[in-house]
From TrEMBL:
Keywords: Cell membrane, Membrane, Sugar transport, Symport, Transmembrane, Transmembrane helix, Transport. Pfam families: KdgT (PF03812). InterPro entries: 2keto-3dGluconate_permease. The chain crosses the membrane at residues 39-67, 87-107, 113-131, 138-161, 173-195. The keyword Membrane applies. This is 2-keto-3-deoxygluconate permease. The keyword Cell membrane applies. Belongs to the KdgT transporter family.
Length: 211
């Protein structure tokens, strides 16, 4: 559950944010990428003594963000150049996401894997509520509900750190893989449904106020 719920798909978020949000929402991918990897899973497990914290992974995510912040603030031309290329990256996120999916993993994982995927897809509700409280676009909050493909490797990493968990690593890998596929399918459906419903409510309010 830690591997499946603490590792969200940044590529899927960027794709959905570009369709249902603005450039600020897409730009939030830089910070969201902190969750796009096994770091937080291993931090949680490391706190319990089950795994070591990969400090290099943390640096690998933080350093590009810091460099980008520095370049964007000291050079307006660089900010304009890099900012205009955000949407160009979306196809490079989306194509590998779809090509790497193996629907047979759902069958191998069974009920637990499907349940984990559904839970992961609905974790975006928390972000939705928070964004709504802060008067921001809440729809993109729902786009955070997913499991990243690289989470599939997390059970193996944990088992390497703690051999006592090696016996469950295979089942956990299948379940996390199923969660990745399920959440990648369900999450966009949730986002699209809530967006259409919110647009319908706005249209009804406009008609009511006009009347």
């Amino acid at each position: 559950m830690l591997a499946g719920l603490l590792n969200a798909n940044g590529g899927l978020y960027a794709s959905l944010a570009s369709s249902y949000g603005d450039e600020t929402d897409v730009g939030a991918y830089a910070l969201f990428s902190l969750k796009d990897g096994p770091f937080f899973t291993l931090v949680a497990l490391g706190a319990s003594g089950l795994a070591s914290i990969p400090f290099q992974t943390f640096l690998g995510v933080i350093i590009p963000i810091v460099i980008g912040m520095i370049l964007g603030n000291i050079d307006p031309d660089m900010r304009k150049f890099l900012g205009s290329s955000k949407l160009l990256l979306i196809p490079f996120f989306s194509f590998p996401l779809g090509a790497g999916m193996d629907l047979s993993t759902i069958i191998k994982a069974g009920g637990p894997g499907i349940l984990l995927g559904l839970i992961a897809a609905f974790t975006g509700i928390g972000a939705y509520v928070l964004l709504k409280l802060f008067k921001e676009n809440p729809i993109v909050g729902l786009a955070t509900g997913s499991t990243a493909g690289n989470a599939v490797a997390t059970p193996v990493v944990v088992a390497a750190a703690d051999p006592a968990l090696a016996s469950v690593a295979h089942a956990a890998t299948a379940q996390v893989a199923a969660a990745c596929v399920i959440s990648a399918i369900v999450c966009p459906i949730i986002v699209s449904y809530v967006f259409k419903r919110s647009q319908k409510k706005k249209a009804n309010k406009s008609l009511a106020s006009a009347a």
